């Protein structure tokens, strides 16, 4: 994301006309707990289709567990050109030399995170269903903003339910990429892509997939390809 310095690059997405708007991409969020077998599952998933970014989100894990997990998956992600984003913790993002950090509204000051991480590291900010928060995040220098939860999700307790039109609104007023999150599956994602999501952030649909995570990644890849350029 250079703005997430990877292929593809968040910042390059908006230098073009509407007709050539880049296709939406997949932003994977980790399973809630880290299992020693996860690296092999991750590799199989990344073999199945393109992923732009991976967020390490291990709520409830100790700092040491998060750092260990981050150290193991970092070279795997690098091998697939997938950006590593650390949830909640700018300090760990710095320690891991991650590509970015994701901050919720309660996760601390954006300017402090920027001062710690510099401008080469991407900062994403949760904006729920709020146009006001999105504009504020833009003013604070966010590299992407996230709206959600678009659908019911068992991954996190959520209270906000944006309408997909917020994605289109944001795309018309800002060049900062937007991420759609919350209960997204290959079956329900099309309206979010068509509304203007630049990234689909997905956890449960992939890691709880009935067959295997790779099959779900493949299904997202097919959908994203199908909707590209519409
Ligand atoms: C891409 C993305 N969007 C939103 C969130 C949620 O962040 P937050 O509100 O801080 O909640 P937690 O994930 O920390 O429980 C996210 N992590 N990623
Ligand atoms: C981490 C998170 N944040 C949300 C928000 O609305 O801000 S929804 C959510 C859960 C995302 O996982 P799944 O794809 O399993 O629903
Ligand atoms: Mg958070």
From TrEMBL:
Q: What is the name listed in the Swiss-Prot or TrEMBL entry for this protein? A: Thiamine-phosphate synthase
Binding residue positions for Mg(2+): 88, 107
> E.C. number, please?
2.5.1.3
Thiamine phosphate synthase/TenI domain location is 26-206
**Keywords annotated in UniProt:** Magnesium, Metal-binding, Thiamine biosynthesis, Transferase
Q: Which residues form a coiled coil?
A: none
- Please tell me which top-level EC class this enzyme sits in: transferase
Cofactor names from the entry are:
Mg(2+)
What does the Swiss-Prot or TrEMBL cofactor note state?
Answer: Binds 1 Mg(2+) ion per subunit.
Q: Name one GO biological process term.
A: thiamine biosynthetic process
What is the native source organism of this protein?
Answer: Pacificimonas flava
């Amino acid at each position: 994301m250079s703005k997430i310095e990877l292929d593809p690059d968040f910042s390059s997405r908006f230098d073009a006309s509407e007709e050539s708007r880049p296709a939406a991409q997949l932003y994977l969020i980790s399973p809630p707990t880290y299992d020693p077998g996860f690296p092999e599952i991750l590799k199989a998933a990344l073999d199945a289709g393109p992923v732009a970014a991976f967020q390490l989100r291990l709520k409830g894990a100790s700092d040491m567990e998060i750092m260990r997990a981050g150290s193991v998956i970092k070279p795997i992600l690098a091998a697939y050109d997938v950006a590593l984003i650390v949830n909640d913790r700018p300090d760990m993002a710095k320690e891991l030399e991650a590509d970015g950090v994701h901050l919720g509204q309660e996760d601390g000051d954006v300017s402090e995170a920027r001062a710690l991480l510099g401008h080469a590291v991407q900062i994403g900010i949760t904006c729920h269903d709020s146009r006001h928060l999105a504009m504020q995040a833009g003013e604070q220098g966010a590299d992407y903003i996230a709206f959600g939860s678009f659908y019911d999700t068992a991954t996190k307790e959520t209270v906000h339910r944006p309408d997909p039109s917020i994605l289109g609104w944001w795309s018309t007023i800002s060049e900062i990429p937007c991420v759609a999150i919350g209960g997204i599956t290959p079956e329900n994602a099309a309206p979010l892509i068509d509304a203007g999501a630049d990234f689909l952030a997905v956890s449960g649909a992939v890691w709880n997939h009935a067959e295997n995570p790779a099959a779900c990644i493949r299904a997202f890849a097919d959908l994203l390809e199908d909707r590209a350029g519409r």
